[in-house]
Amino acid sequence: SFTIGRSSEADFTIRVNELSKVHCKIYLEDNQIFIEDMNSKNGVRVDGEKIPAEEKIEIFPDSSVLITSDLQLNLFGNETQTALKVEAVVRAKPLVRTSALKRKYKF
Fold first, then answer.
1. Count of CB atoms situated within 10 Å of the CB of 17
2. How far apart are the C-alpha atoms of 96 and 87, rounded to whole Å?
3. Cβ(75)–Cβ(61) under 8 Å?
4. Measured between alpha carbons, how far is 54 from 25 in angstroms, rounded to an integer?
5. Are the C-beta atoms of 84 and 65 separated by less than 8 Å?
6. What does 3-38 look like in DSSP terms, one character per residue?
7. What is the CA 47 to chain-centroid distance, rounded?
């Protein structure tokens, strides 16, 4: 098992304000994968539903798992093996502020 959170107390530390210090825990048991919300402030959603805190919920390759609005857990697999992948959506920031462009190009 391993934990995900924004603190160094977590096994995987991701510096995102929406994450609690130790946000959730992933378990690998008997060829099954479970997730547990570690009583986080913003919760964990599986297939659109907020899961109860401190209760292990089995997740599957077709499950939609949102740890935060920008952090998604994806499972890939078949009958013989499953892989786990955490993906983050990073919002793009403009390279140049529009006010600077307006001054330079006067539009």
1. 7
2. 27
3. yes
4. 9
5. no
6. EEESSTTSSEE---TTS-TT-EEEEEETTEEEEEE-
7. 13
Residue 46 φ then ψ, to 5°:
-120, 120
Tell me which amino acid residue 65 is: V
Quick one: which H or E segment has residue 65? strand 65-66
pLDDT at residue 90 is higher than 80? no
Instruction: Quickly tell me which residue has 């995987």 as its tokens.
Output: 12
What pTM was computed for the model? Answer: 0.75
What share of the chain has pLDDT > 70, as a percent? Answer: 75
d(CA 34, CA 84) in angstroms, rounded, equals: 11
67: its two tokens: 């740890």
What does residue 103 show for φ and ψ, rounded to 5 degrees? -65, -45
Q: Do 25 and 11 touch, CB atoms closer than 8 A?
A: no
Q: CA 10 to CA 15: how far, in whole Å?
A: 11
Q: DSSP character for 47?
A: T
